[in-house]
Amino acid sequence: MLRLPADLRGAFKEPMGRVYTDPVDLLRDADQTEGPIVAVGDVVTFHLRQADRDPDVAVIDGKTKRDAVDEAVAEVLDGDADRIEVENPPATLSEALLDALVTALDAADPTVIFVDGEEDLATLPAIVAAPIGASVVYGQPDEGMVHVPVDEETKAEARELLSQFEGDVEAAFARLD
């Protein structure tokens, strides 16, 4: 549905929120919001679960930095949450991934979206689809976990970045809204 243009790749170097190295500190701040917690990435999901907080939505692909996660991480990721499996090629946002985000956010129980492909770009549609007051947490390679409190400003920023993708942006927004 959407493809990341090469000239937009640099826009993802700077974190969209505060960077944390301690999941307990992150959760203390995230718990001040009243919405769900969406975790994008295997290592982020692992750290939140190790801190006794199952994300309401976890988007994982079984990899970190393009390599398979180690066995200890994989065991923690195989929790009891409901699971949705989708295909999402690298540098894209598929219809299946966008639909899964909406479905998982509407679910009463924690849900894992397992991506065959790459989940790296799921942060933007997660911010757009999540309700005001939610928290989206994603990994910043070699730095830590980024906490993005979902508010009108962060939604607008995510929409602005997504609007620069190639493909049917309006149809993507229609799926997420």
Automatic annotation (TrEMBL):
Any Pfam family: DUF359
GO MF, one example: kinase activity
InterPro entries xref list: GTP-dep_dephospho-CoA_kin (IPR007164)
Enzyme Commission code: 2.7.1.237
Reaction equations catalysed: 3'-dephospho-CoA + GTP = GDP + CoA + H(+)
This protein's pathway: Cofactor biosynthesis; coenzyme A biosynthesis
Binding positions (GTP): D42, V43, V44, D61, K63, E119, D142
Organism superkingdom: Archaea
Keywords for this protein: Coenzyme A biosynthesis, GTP-binding, Kinase, Nucleotide-binding, Transferase
Biological process terms in GO annotation: coenzyme A biosynthetic process
Similarity remark: Belongs to the GTP-dependent DPCK family.
Function text: Catalyzes the GTP-dependent phosphorylation of the 3'-hydroxyl group of dephosphocoenzyme A to form coenzyme A (CoA).
Protein's name in the database: GTP-dependent dephospho-CoA kinase
